[in-house]
Design brief:
16 helices, globular, alpha/beta, D-Maltodextrin-Binding Protein, domain 2, 18% strand, five-stranded mixed sheet, four-stranded mixed sheet, 11 strands
């Protein structure tokens, strides 16, 4: 699965030895403390997706790397399929240290760290390549540190794909076709305002309730990526999938600051390096899963609709008030993001 695992672990071992030596050279007491931290620490990692989902697979690889990189000092137990809590709830639990780690969408995390909302603005990125240049560069690094004051440490960016609308009523070929649809959204004011700006009715619901809500008619549709649309069976009840690409919202691996502070400097570094490596792996898995999911739902009868450039411009114009509301005072940052080439 991971062809570079041995090289990664070798790098981790070298890094760990370096950190240990620095601690010893800088302060004899620090070195003694390092020596005494030999007890096994077990961390709980919450993942809302199912076992074969890219983020879950990558989380398990992360746990393996950490276990080997720390020589068993840190064990990470993965709880998939929302066994611990919903995405919105678990972000707050990580803040207070009742859950150690998770991978969440920025929509769920923005209630904790409001500065992240700017990265969710609709039509912010030109395409996926543009987004990764932003997140893997200085801007992305700046955002990973913005959560520290909220008791959360950002570790790495995962791919969440482009989010598109899907519904059970009709094809969406124009802005007019969106009007009146009841669309499920995460419990995020920004996402609610986005749906409302396009003329639809936002219905906040936990992710796990979407299939039944589609089946019962409580909602007409939702918005998400190809893998999410496929993995939870949403395509069975909402066959019209529209490639509007309103959001490219990355996902982020986070750890409670309280948890990270419990670890030695050496093991903290191992955690950070393993997170970065598992994020690269997740992106590879995501690209493949996206193609596989698309093929599966299309073969099952999903109707895929692309929006013309002229109509897309109307969507962009309709959401301008969202920038005025959520990017007030941050338009310079928006410009920095858009200027990344």
């Amino acid at each position: 699965m991971f062809t570079k695992t041995k090289k990664i672990l070798a790098a981790l071992s070298i890094a760990a030895m370096g950190a240990f030596c620095l601690a010893g050279c800088g302060n004899e007491r620090a070195a003694q403390d390092e020596d005494t931290k030999t007890d096994t620490i077990v961390l709980r990692y919450s993942e809302i997706q199912v076992q074969d989902y890219p983020t879950t697979i990558a989380a398990k690889k992360f746990a393996e790397l950490v276990n080997e990189g720390t020589q068993g000092r840190v064990i990470i137990d993965i709880y998939d399929n929302a066994k611990i809590a919903t995405e919105d709830a678990v972000a707050k639990q990580v803040k207070y240290g009742t859950v150690d780690m998770t991978r969440v969408s920025l929509s769920a995390l923005s209630d904790v760290t409001h500065e992240l909302e700017v990265l969710q603005l609709p039509y912010l990125y030109r395409d996926g390549e543009h987004m990764w240049k932003v997140l893997d560069g200085d801007i992305g690094k700046e955002f990973l540190t913005k959560m520290d004051k909220d008791g959360i440490v950002g570790l790495a960016w995962n791919d969440g794909g482009a989010r598109n609308f899907y519904n059970s009523k009709r094809e969406i070929k124009s802005l007019e076709d969106v009007k009146g649809l009841k669309i499920r959204v995460q419990e995020s004011p920004l996402m609610e305002d986005l749906v409302r700006a396009l003329g639809a009715e936002p219905i906040p619901l936990p992710y796990g309730e979407v299939p039944e809500a589609l089946k019962s008619g409580k909602i007409d549709g939702a918005e998400n990526s190809w893998p999410s649309y496929e993995s939870q069976g949403h395509y069975k009840y909402a066959k019209y999938y529209t490639l509007d690409g309103h959001s490219r919202i990355p996902e982020i691996m986070i750890i409670s600051k309280r948890t990270l502070d419990r670890l030695s400097p050496t093991d903290q570094q191992v955690i950070r390096m393993c997170a970065a490596e598992s994020a690269k792996y997740e992106r590879e898995l995501w690209a493949k899963r996206e193609n596989d999911s698309k093929k599966k739902v299309v073969d099952a009868g999903t109707v895929v609709t692309e929006i013309s450039d002229a109509e897309k411009a109307k969507f962009v114009q309709a959401v301008e008030p969202i920038y005025e509301k959520y990017a007030a005072g941050q338009m310079e940052l928006v410009k920095r993001i858009r200027d990344v080439k």
